[in-house]
């Protein structure tokens, strides 16, 4: 058997029943989910010799099934893709960083990963700024937009330093300039055009990186997510992944992997609108969601997201530099943390991981030896009190009071229908003053309304089984600071308590809460609360 040939066979089955039978009769498995009864089989062991191929042909003819092709496949195909590794903008910000990332990927010889990349460094921000400037600068001035200059310079320099052919991005740089001229001519930047514009970032970073991997002898293949089945809603700038994405992505990536294995290098953040067929984006930081979607689609054993911090931290290090890595989190905790504003993870990214029950590891590409954070379905909560503190600034609070609402049904329905009628979702974007005025005007017909602006939400993510302890300690800290909490709520997922305070008090609150919860021994913490001995450090 040692010199037996291996083949990949694609058959057009008349019905899924037949394919199941064939599946049982042979020792084959089906790597990709069914799509239009077009199945791809691969021998699981070296059994598909020339003789087996002939017998496959005979059985297909007997069952009236078309045998479309039998390709000889590489032995590598036997080894399945094992994980997905996502590298964010800071991890691929320069040629040097790209070299380090390539080295990092190759330092795991037992992994056969799919790689997801974001745009280099601050490219997405620069593309958006260039687009905004193009709206009002006039066609002839487009080539002097500063941000366009930065983008060109960064990508050309990277290509040169990595010694790959500039042709991998030349067409994209040219098209980008044309697009900016188009925006200048039209004098408008629609959400649809914005998404097309920012897509250049990921399209170029992945092309450069794939070319570099090939140059150093690691066979790689570049993919644009919008060409391999990332199907989304048509909500430009904040699109949602649709269910059809999973089988389509699996089919594309596994199909290629089986017939010609090469490390897939996929653009993060991008998709294709199901109605418009135009390029969409998944919201800022959306490459995390690309990675978890691939993880679920391929049923991988791990999803790794590589960042510039040692994992998910106890709070935003930009607010408090003494924040520490959190070693373990549940999907619920991570989702809540992201939803309430921690930039480290995309708010929707935990959904596919949770659905596929695939562990997510958050690691630091600048410090690969740090253990990072492991996010799983469940974890030992026996010692957990507070896991992380998240701050969301510049929140507007609507205080709606009505004595008529007591004992009345339909009151809340009227409140929500006001938002629906005005097409406002309270969470998805910032409202402009005019919209807020409209809401207040409408709600004033049924209640007394106070619009409270410049507030912050401090979310305490942790073990809500110990909510009394958390609240006692938190309120003690806030009272010592002289801060009044204006609203308190417990999230539906039961891992989050949110407090609303004034914007200008919020940072100090987070620092003091961090000191009290994470820089104090837990047993001390319980004792302090029971005996009333504690004092908040400021
Ligand atoms: N709780 C937190 N834990 C870790 N990082 C956080 C947290 N809150 C905010 N951040 C910020 O998130 C950044 C990482 O997220 P992001 O910039 O999206 O990474 P990448 O672009 O590498 O995917 C960190 O550099 C840090 O400044
Ligand atoms: N480049 C996109 C998508 C993304 O996920 O980026 P990052 O991984 O660097 O947060 C953005 O800046 O939003």
UniProtKB/TrEMBL annotation:
<dbReference type="Pfam" id="PF00696">
    <property type="entry name" value="AA_kinase"/>
</dbReference>
<dbReference type="InterPro" id="IPR045865">
    <property type="entry name" value="ACT-like_dom_sf"/>
</dbReference>
<comment type="similarity">
    <text>Belongs to the aspartokinase family.</text>
</comment>
<dbReference type="GO" id="GO:0009090">
    <property type="term" value="P:homoserine biosynthetic process"/>
</dbReference>
<dbReference type="GO" id="GO:0005829">
    <property type="term" value="C:cytosol"/>
</dbReference>
<comment type="pathway">
    <text>Amino-acid biosynthesis; L-methionine biosynthesis via de novo pathway; L-homoserine from L-aspartate: step 1/3.</text>
</comment>
<dbReference type="InterPro" id="IPR036393">
    <property type="entry name" value="AceGlu_kinase-like_sf"/>
</dbReference>
<comment type="pathway">
    <text>Amino-acid biosynthesis; L-lysine biosynthesis via DAP pathway; (S)-tetrahydrodipicolinate from L-aspartate: step 1/4.</text>
</comment>
<keyword id="KW-0418">Kinase</keyword>
<dbReference type="GO" id="GO:0005524">
    <property type="term" value="F:ATP binding"/>
</dbReference>
<dbReference type="InterPro" id="IPR001048">
    <property type="entry name" value="Asp/Glu/Uridylate_kinase"/>
</dbReference>
<dbReference type="GO" id="GO:0004072">
    <property type="term" value="F:aspartate kinase activity"/>
</dbReference>
<dbReference type="InterPro" id="IPR018042">
    <property type="entry name" value="Aspartate_kinase_CS"/>
</dbReference>
<dbReference type="InterPro" id="IPR054352">
    <property type="entry name" value="ACT_Aspartokinase"/>
</dbReference>
<dbReference type="InterPro" id="IPR001341">
    <property type="entry name" value="Asp_kinase"/>
</dbReference>
<keyword id="KW-0028">Amino-acid biosynthesis</keyword>
<dbReference type="GO" id="GO:0009570">
    <property type="term" value="C:chloroplast stroma"/>
</dbReference>
<dbReference type="GO" id="GO:0009088">
    <property type="term" value="P:threonine biosynthetic process"/>
</dbReference>
<keyword id="KW-0808">Transferase</keyword>
<keyword id="KW-0791">Threonine biosynthesis</keyword>
<dbReference type="InterPro" id="IPR042199">
    <property type="entry name" value="AsparK_Bifunc_asparK/hSer_DH"/>
</dbReference>
<keyword id="KW-0067">ATP-binding</keyword>
<protein>
    <recommendedName>
        <fullName>Aspartokinase</fullName>
        <ecNumber>2.7.2.4</ecNumber>
    </recommendedName>
</protein>
<feature type="domain" description="Aspartokinase ACT">
    <location>
        <begin position="458"/>
        <end position="517"/>
    </location>
</feature>
<keyword id="KW-0547">Nucleotide-binding</keyword>
<dbReference type="Pfam" id="PF22468">
    <property type="entry name" value="ACT_9"/>
</dbReference>
<feature type="domain" description="Aspartate/glutamate/uridylate kinase">
    <location>
        <begin position="82"/>
        <end position="364"/>
    </location>
</feature>
<dbReference type="InterPro" id="IPR041746">
    <property type="entry name" value="AK-LysC-like"/>
</dbReference>
<dbReference type="GO" id="GO:0009089">
    <property type="term" value="P:lysine biosynthetic process via diaminopimelate"/>
</dbReference>
């Amino acid at each position: 058997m040692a010199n037996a040939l291996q083949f990949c066979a694609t058959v057009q089955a008349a019905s899924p029943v037949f394919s199941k039978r064939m599946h049982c009769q042979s020792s084959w498995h089906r790597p990709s989910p069914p799509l239009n009864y077009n199945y791809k089989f691969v021998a699981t062991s070296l059994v598909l010799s020339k003789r087996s191929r002939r017998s496959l042909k005979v059985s297909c003819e007997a069952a009236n099934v078309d045998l479309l092709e039998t390709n000889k496949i590489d032995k590598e195909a036997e080894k399945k893709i094992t994980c997905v590794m996502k590298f964010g903008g800071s991890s691929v910000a320069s040629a040097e960083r790209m070299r380090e990332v390539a080295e990092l990927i190759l330092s795991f010889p037992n992994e056969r990963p799919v790689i997801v990349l974001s745009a280099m460094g601050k490219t997405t921000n620069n593309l958006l700024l260039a687009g905004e400037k193009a709206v009002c600068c006039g066609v002839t001035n487009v080539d002097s937009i500063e941000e366009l200059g930065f983008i060109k310079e960064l990508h050309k320099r990277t290509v040169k330093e990595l010694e790959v052919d500039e042709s991998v991005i030349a067409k994209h740089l040219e098209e980008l300039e044309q697009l900016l001229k188009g925006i200048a001519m039209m004098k408008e930047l629609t959400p649809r055009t914005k998404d097309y514009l920012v897509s250049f970032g990921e399209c170029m970073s992945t092309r450069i990186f794939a070319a570099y991997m090939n140059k150093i002898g690691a066979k790689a293949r570049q993919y644009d997510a919008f060409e391999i089945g990332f199907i989304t809603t048509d909500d430009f700038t904040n699109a949602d992944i649709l269910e059809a994405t999973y089988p389509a992505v699996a089919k594309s990536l596994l199909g290629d992997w089986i017939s010609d294995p090469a490390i897939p290098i996929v653009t993060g953040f991008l998709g294709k609108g199901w109605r418009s067929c135009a390029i969409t984006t998944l919201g800022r930081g959306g490459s995390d969601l690309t990675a978890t979607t691939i993880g679920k689609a391929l049923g991988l054993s791990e999803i790794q997201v590589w960042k510039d911090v040692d994992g998910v931290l106890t709070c935003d290090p930009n607010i408090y530099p003494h924040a520490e890595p959190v070693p373990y989190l549940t999907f619920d905790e991570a989702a809540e943390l992201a939803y309430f504003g921690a930039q480290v993870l995309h708010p929707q990214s935990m959904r596919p991981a949770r659905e596929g029950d695939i562990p997510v590891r958050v690691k630091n590409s600048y410090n690969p030896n740090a253990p990072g954070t492991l996010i799983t379905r469940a974890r030992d909560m026996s010692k957990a009190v507070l896991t992380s503190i998240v701050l969301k600034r510049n929140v507007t609070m609507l205080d709606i009071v009505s004595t008529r609402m007591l004992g009345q049904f339909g009151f809340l329905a009227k409140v929500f229908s006001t938002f629906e009628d005005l097409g406002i979702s309270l969470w998805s974007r910032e409202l402009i003053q005019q919209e807020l005025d409209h809401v207040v005007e409408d709600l004033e017909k049924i209640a007394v309304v106070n619009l409270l602006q410049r507030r912050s939400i401090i979310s305490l993510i942790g073990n809500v089984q110990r909510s009394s302890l958390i609240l006692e300690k938190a309120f003690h800290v806030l009272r010592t600071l002289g801060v009044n909490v204006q609203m308190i709520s417990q999230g539906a997922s039961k891992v989050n308590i949110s407090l609303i305070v004034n914007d200008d008090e919020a940072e100090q609150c987070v620092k003091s809460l961090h000191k009290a919860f994470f820089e104090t021994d837990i047993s001390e913490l319980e004792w302090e609360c029971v005996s009333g001995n504690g004092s908040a450090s400021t």
